[in-house]
Batch of 2 targets.
Target 1
Amino acid sequence: MGNDNATLELFALQTASDAVPVDEVIRLLANVHARNAVVYLHDHPAATLDELADALTAAAASADETIATPSDRDRVLIRLHHDILPRLADLDFIEFDSETNTVTETRIPDAVVAALGIDE
């Protein structure tokens, strides 16, 4: 994922302020798991909650140079399900089906992609 230490390019968000609720996006992207979720979903627009939890747990362990535990994964999974994915859905960045635990569609705005420095 590699964006743990990336500087959020606020200029890209500010210039797109009509299309993107900048303050809400900045609050969301202040969390490393949320940033990594956006990066993962940009590359995998249809993902399951389990896939996403695995990827984010691995990214966090890699960044911290530790070994992830099942409880680490459980914490990430709960945060994704109850906080991050609903907020991304509220921003209309994704469609999240909480019954099947799948992201069925991803619409991450270009300004957010640019702000995170995601390479196409």
Target 2
Amino acid sequence: MAAWLQTPPGRYLLAWEQGQVDAAVADLFGFHALQLGLPELDGLHANRMPHRWLVGRDLHCEFEALPFESASLDLVVLPHALELADDAHALLREVERVLRPEGRLIVFGLNPASLWGLRQNLGRLKRRSEPYLPREGDFIGYWRLRDWLKLLSFEVEAARFGVYRPPLRTEAWLARWQWVEAVGARWWPVLGAVYFIQAIKRVNGTRMVGLARNQRLAAKKAPAVALNHHQNKK
């Protein structure tokens, strides 16, 4: 997927996602934040938590076996990690394990119910044709993912779709179709090529007083993992 993100449609998608995640994480507070994969998207750049890691750059581990204690993280960002995972269910369960009650989860996924998804599926049927999107990974529908989140006691706080231009390969043709962004967002919002979901982990009976106490304790002792890459630069 890294190579595809250097293409005109890849850069177009990445720019939309970067804007969404920067706005979403800027005002999320806590102590420990984690991004799983896709270093091309700096999902924690605009966040101010003191301890931030990117799996695949700052530490190396299996996504389904994260080296964090249960209920130890305040934010997890999954930029296309679920659709690229060998077992998306296992990955989502692991994320639920390491997130604190009231912790946030941010997910980006390619939308199969879009023009981009349709072109990709047609390309797979015509095996000789070059696929529009990366070959690896399986699309996970927006409503299907919401069902998975609900089963794991996540509550969706915010969701939106984006990237409405047709599946074109050149910068020039994508630029010509810029006008369709506003039209798509207004008239067929769920048909964007990519979706963004922000969810919160809910735990029945959780007391906010207890959460505040746990956060004070967590500030004194970070999880035993690699050093924060932002700190390493100093």
